[in-house]
Amino acid sequence: MRTGRSRSVKANSMWPLFSGRRRPELVLQSEAAECGLACLAMIAGYHGHELDLNALRRRFGSSLKGASLAQLIATARNLGFDTRALRAEMEYLSRLDMPCILHWDLNHFVVLERVDGNGVHILDPAHGARMISLAEAGRHFTGVVLELSRSASFEPIRDVEQVRLRTLTGRVRGLGKVFSQVLCFALAIETLGLLLPFQLQWVVDKVLVSADGNLLLIIGLAFAVIVLAQAGLMFVRGWVISWAGATLSAKWTTNLFSHSMRLPLEFFEKRHIGDVVSRFSSLNQIQQTLTGSFVETLLDGIVGLLALVALMMYSASLTCIVLAGAGLYGVLRMLMYRRLWRANEEQLVYGARQQSELMESIRGVQAIKLANRQASRVVRLTNLTQESVLRSMQSQRIGLAFTAINQGVFGIQRVALITIGARMVIGGELTAGMLIAFLAFADQLTQKVGSVIDKSIDLGMLRLHKQRIADIALALPEREGEGSVHAWEAEPGVVVRNLSFRYSDNDPWVFRNLDFSVRPGESVAITGPSGCGKSTLAKIILGLLKPTQGSVEIGGIDIERLGMERYRELIAAVMQDDQLFGGSIAENIAFGDTGASMERIIEAAMIASIHDEIMAMPMGYESLVGDMGSSLSGGQKQRVIFARAVYRQPRILLLDEATSHLDVAREGCINDAVSRIKATRIIIAHRKETINSADRVIDMGDLSLVASQVA
Q1: Exactly one of 35, 39, 100, 669 is catalytic; which is it?
Q2: 643-692 tens-digit pLDDT
Q3: Active-site residue flag, 532
Q4: What confidence tens digit (pLDDT) does each residue in 574-625 have?
Q5: Contacts of 190 (CB under 8 A, 6+ apart)
Q6: What is the secondary structure of 324-356 as a DSSP string?
């Protein structure tokens, strides 16, 4: 049994605040095949461990292929649980020791939270918390259950990495001064706004009583100046905020993308592309909240306190009514907080899944058309879109409910204030002008308090976005290394020592105990049957994957100690699944070299036997390659990629089926070119012609032969 699906972050409990008993918290998966690990995280948290998915990955690893039930049992026992795996019919579900793990849809795991009269309540690490009927559960449940309980040796573990915004986004200079300016502008705006109710009081109590037209003109002009000053300050504040927001957005996105480019290849292989991309959108949400909601919340709190002081000066009893209404609104909002969290989280999850499906369909449109499966892909995307829209609608409905509650609570409050305040005017406790001013201040206070509560909820939701970004920001980058690149006089040799690899502790070995060497300047062909690990070995030699055991050395230095960035200055490769990028052929061959010369580009293309075909194109080397090389044939694309590798003038050149799309004649030309390149060459191939072009052959299908190749 293997896991599947997508997405991770630890969320707040999705259940009501006052539920009567403790319940497990939902954990959504990040990697495509870690639902089993996410289920263990939920149950571990329920029993007292403080562990997140990052901690579990560090402790137990994760695999592209997921985890079997036996592997989940082993992991659970390492966490201090006694386990019981059993087969159960649907009728037995209510008698299980909950929460427990159910095997779902033959390729997935979920947590069974409870069974009651409403149905089956599950926590699905791919889709969120759900309540489904027994009949629907029966269509998904495979009958396999894993119960967990504390063992006698159980001790709570705390291993949760805290996330700070600076960790997520890096340092941005000069923003402290900008925020101080915004705060000062906003404080001035709100202070001027507090003066406006006095116009009503003075007009009613002084002007109307005395019929003094001059005083009315003076008051009108004074408050007109105040309003104009307020409008001018609002414009300046908006201008500064827009600059700060754009700066933050650009800087944070750049910092996070820069960090993601330093992450190992396996990070991206374990995640759906749409999910990774969607996490960058969380940066915009954080930026908008911090540049808007944070400052507004702070100011609204200050202005609300000033308005409260003003209200107390008019009437303590009426002020108590105002505070009661604000308190009631705050309690109702808090009761809805977790429901809002759940809706927003699931909206992000389904939005990312929809984006992944869309990207996958666009990239694979050729295969879709050839199989005539356009309709089925449309159905898949439509279903995901509907799910995403449904979650978005749920979030909008919660927002509408908040708006209705706000209007209802504060509307009733205003009716009460007018009624009671009018009686106080009749009784002589207040003047008519004072009541009007009080109502204006009360409106300001309720508006500010309501805004503080709403913005506080928005700030609370930042944790959801921080946790999503943390999946990228807290991932460990490739090792930088301790050594330096030596200027070897001859091409460096490659030595593979006792090399073994598997994707996780629970996966089978791809290969074990490989030992061989490639002498400086030598050309070696690596062969073997499909599935024996040739491409995996290539990725390890290139530093894209980290070996489970053993090492790869170049020039006598372990590449781990040398550092990947330094190491890759010496190497170039043509892989089976290499890609071209948007731009011209020349730009793809030079591949980011800002000082590229046309002579060097042409030389690389000639070595790759693609120069004549490029010159036959209308735009020559300025011809666009299309989306990821779509305008070129398979053979042309492969030779441009080979030219890109040659352009780097590497000390070590690795080719993984680099001529698989070429005819025999073109393959012979490439093989001749490779034989003339002054570099250490490692060639992975199946074709006899390519294999024969090498100085020596290493057959991975014959381990004894591999072991004998050590220099």
Answers
A1: 35
A2: 999 999 899 999 988 877 788 888 888 888 888 888 899 999 888 888 88
A3: no
A4: 988 888 888 889 999 998 888 888 999 999 999 998 999 999 988 888 888 8
A5: 299, 300, 302, 303
A6: HHHHHHHHHHHHTHHHHHHHHHHHHHHHHHHHH
